[in-house]
Amino acid sequence: MPVVQESEDQASSAHPSTPARALLPSIVPAVAVGVLCSLILVGVEVAAEQLQDVLWQTVPDALGIGRYSVAWMFVVLIATGIAVGLVVWKVPGHAGPDPATIGLDAPVLPPVVLPGLLLVTALMLAGGPSLGPENPIITVNVGLAVWLGSRLVPRAPGRIWPALAEAATIGALFGTPVAAALAISELLATKETRGMLWDNLFAPLTAAAAGSLTVTLLDHPSFDLGLPSFGRPGWSDLLASVVVTAVGALLAMCAVRALPYVHGAFQRLRHPMLMLPAGGVVLGCLAAVGGHLTLFKGLDEIATLARDPDGWSAGEFAVMTVVKLAALVVAAACGFRGGRIFPAVFVGTALGLCAHALVSGVHPSVGVSAGVLGVLLAITRQGWISLFVAAVLVAEPTVIALLCIASLPAWLLVTGRPQMQLRADGTPVR
Description:
The longest helix is centred in the N-terminal third of the chain and has 37 residues, at 27-63. The protein has 17 helices and no strands. Helices cover 71% and strands 0% of the residues. By secondary structure, the protein is mainly α.
């Protein structure tokens, strides 16, 4: 007992608690940042949905052609590449740096860059490239929070604004502050911090709570796919989760390895008006092979798959898995502004349902959650976020134990390997 007490005393002196009076002033700025970041996210997504309806329903119906015919998918994807290329070329700030170099830990960009980045994000979401809104929206919110915060509250530490904006946006994206708490905890583990963990999490978690509550009130997001319940897990479920997670990680690692080469090929074109339309052509070819479900960020599409887990053959699920993963690499490499998490969820979902179609003993819920876990571990190398997303898709508490065990061998496969993000010189981030 004295040894335990001595260790606790040493830990307490190394990480002293922050008094409540020091935390209280952060509540109002955190809430304000949370609400603002969530409103920007909702605004971009609503605008993108309206434009998507026009591009994929109103116009093809008026022209009397199929909404998702091969010809129309080519037309819209190439047109999206041209539109985004024009913004990147002509709009001040050029819509920010190379998107392949941006992750969830966003850079602070000057205000002049942000309108163009918002515009290309909305165009991308509506046009069908396989990317999500997370990276560019976080980048916009970080830049806006730093710019406004430094002017409205000049005495506040400058480093607080990026943390608040990132946490608020992650909370809004996933509809819960838990996702932000997990992401920020992983980030804090890589940095020198002062005080207790929850002292450092207090303001970001407040911002995340405000962001998630705002989105919930406005948009009612839900990630539960409504897959069949599998009840009490057995040894076969454990085996299936371990195998599918490992396969998902290995498959995604192939895409991660391919990214620098695909990125280098597009970079040889040297101009956004060549790179992005060329990316649209390649994405059109992939969509022709994989079908319209492999377009867009993927959340609505995985709901379609989950409504009928037995509605496609193992071969069809396998094609969708590979095509979506290839489309993710191409879209990220050619210059479309977007994130990799949401399309990766589609890849993992299709892989898990492919496993179910191949082996009937693999329960759909186990296959989907394990597939998503493995793919996200390889692409992001963020264990907590990967576990969280995989678990909320199934919304069954018993799956968490399976995923925790399955993550261990999968982590041995991905740790120390590159993730799906490049440095400015084109080399992968490890």
